[in-house]
Amino acid sequence: MESVTNFSVSLIKGFIDSLRGVTVLLYLDKEINERALSRSPLTEFENTKNKQKQPKVKQESKVLTRVLQSCILNGFIFLLSILIFEYVLLPAVKYLVTVVFGHNPGVAHNVWAWMQPFLSMTFRMIWVLPLFLLSKLVNSLWFQDIADSAYRHRRGRPQFMSSVSKIIADSLFSLLVQALFLVQSMLVSMLPITYIGELLCLVHMCLLYSLYSFEYKWFNMGWELHKRLTFIETNWPYFLGFGLPLAVLTQIPQSYIISGCVFSIFFPVFILSGNEATPVIGSEYPLRLFSPVVAISNALFRCVRQGAEVVTQRNR
Length: 316
What we know:
The protein is mainly alpha-helical. Helices cover about 80% and strands about 0% of the residues. The chain contains eleven helices and no strands.
């Protein structure tokens, strides 16, 4: 009974903490700007003592600006353009085809049968794909900016890993683990048991989105990937609740592109939530969902390293 109670408390606490970023947005910029202003040497006494006038410096925080920019890019430009194309332009063109060939419904059906895929493919190649790639690049920069500003305000200067090569290796390994974990979530969703596959997929996505949200803070704290993953696996009830809102929101759309837009719109709030949150620790039963993909990633990196060593020896 106590285990169930602890699980429920951790799950609810994680869910509530994931929503804190909404309120943080309302005051974080103001606090950062006030702190920057209070640290500026701007008093009249100091100006007189130094016999020169020092300009007043105020470092404007851009957290709220970055969040709004992300919403505009991913919501009003990217997502809205897709919805307009799918639910306004395509139906309008279809109606035009039926009007032009109204005397012959069979011809209208055949014309629309080749026109609709052609228009959809053209739209995706000319607009959706370039904008998708651009948004991925821009979002990564904005997300990093949001995370760094919030971290410096709460905890001061980041404590990075000991060397640049270690940072690069950790980042590459992290990307591989996350990609394989996505594949793992898709595989478990295919289990031929009613609702079990979907539930396991949801659990995977909750933990993955929690990793995304907390990774900025943990990386700035100098935590290596194995420590980040172990912490999530050990305290999984909290992170299950933390990632639940974003996982549900992104699973509602049927389109991968629209799901990505929804993720990019709401994710900055979860970055702020993760920066503010204090996870509930002490779960009795670790959930080793990341362990299989970590083992596969280690094997792949080992093969690549051995292959590189063999090529190096042959070149000598």
